[in-house]
Amino acid sequence: MNEGLVAETVSIVGHDGDEIEAYLARPLGVRSFGGVVVIHHMPGYDGGTKEITRTFAAHGYAALMPNLYHRDAPGASPDDAAAVARARGGVPDERLVGDVGGAADYLRALEGSNGKVGVIGYCSGGRQSFLAACSLPLDAAVDCYGAFVVGEPPEGMPLKVGPIVHLAPSLSCPLLGLFGADDKYPSPDQVAELDKALTEAGKAHEFHVYDGAGHAFFSVNRPAYRVEAATDGWQKIWDFYGRYLAV
Amino acid sequence: MCTYLTETIAVAGSGKGTAGWIPLTDATVYLDHPQHAPAEHTLNIDFLNPAQGPAARVAVELTADSARALARAIETTLASAPPGLA
User: Fold this and answer.
1) How many domains, in total, are found in chain A?
2) Which chain A residues are closer than 8 Å to B4 by Cβ?
3) In what order do the strands lie in the sheet with A113-122?
4) What is the per-residue pLDDT across A1-36, written as a single tens digit (0 to 9) for each?
5) Which CATH number do you get for residue A155?
6) What ipTM was predicted for this assembly?
7) Structural domain range at position A59
């Protein structure tokens, strides 16, 4: 693999047939590749998550990040769009599933696709990765510290999403979970509850909870970044996707 | 964590954003991950004019201590104003 890649903004068909913006990075010089749908965190379709998307391409995957806030603020800067989406209560679950499904279809249709598509999400996107993998036919899913898969949001939070652990029996693919032991949302107890639900449902999964790390430990431009957890976490992702997407 | 916790209020006044001064109609106040401030969570305020689009926004991200100090300073300033001005 020469790590060459091309990255560009494209238009994809998302939920309800809507055309939405997405960021595509694909490898060069690779005859056959798997696909990864990247779900951005709540701060939006930002530079940091675009860098993550390019990282997948550098490792031989076609990666596509739909702009989940495109309808809320077309053409706006990522931070302004995130502010609008927040004021509207976030991304509805049904719309998220439709947009990830559209992104997965786009990846499967790329020339050179091996037909396999995984999903990964960070922060709020971690919950959405699990949701997508329970709602769509996918080949591998990664949940990076997604809150409220398990557990009700604290009283008084006007969050429009609720726990979705009951969807575990519908999980369509193996799940890799990467969490911080110091995180409160999800707490280690909540991670353990999700682990138990998946085991009871007979679903393939592997969870890693990193000591000395809290929420958002992959974010290189935030104080939450933890180099040991992030470095090992990336290795876990390459191992996992190598088993389920690359072959 | 992503708190999603958001207070929305109507406001009257003006703010200076990237395109110059704009009349303000709304403000949202929330505690969550900042876009820019070097902290895990900040008290964020967006002064907005949604009718003029997403970019009609004046944003601040403050540490919890500085947000409380700001709130006290606002109350102190208003309380000490001469009668009839505020």
Assistant:
1) 1
2) 42, 86, 89-90, 153, 157-159
3) A5-13, A19-27, A62-66, A33-39, A113-122, A140-144, A175-180, A205-210
4) 678 999 999 999 999 999 999 999 999 999 999 999
5) 3.40.50.1820
6) 0.83
7) 5-244
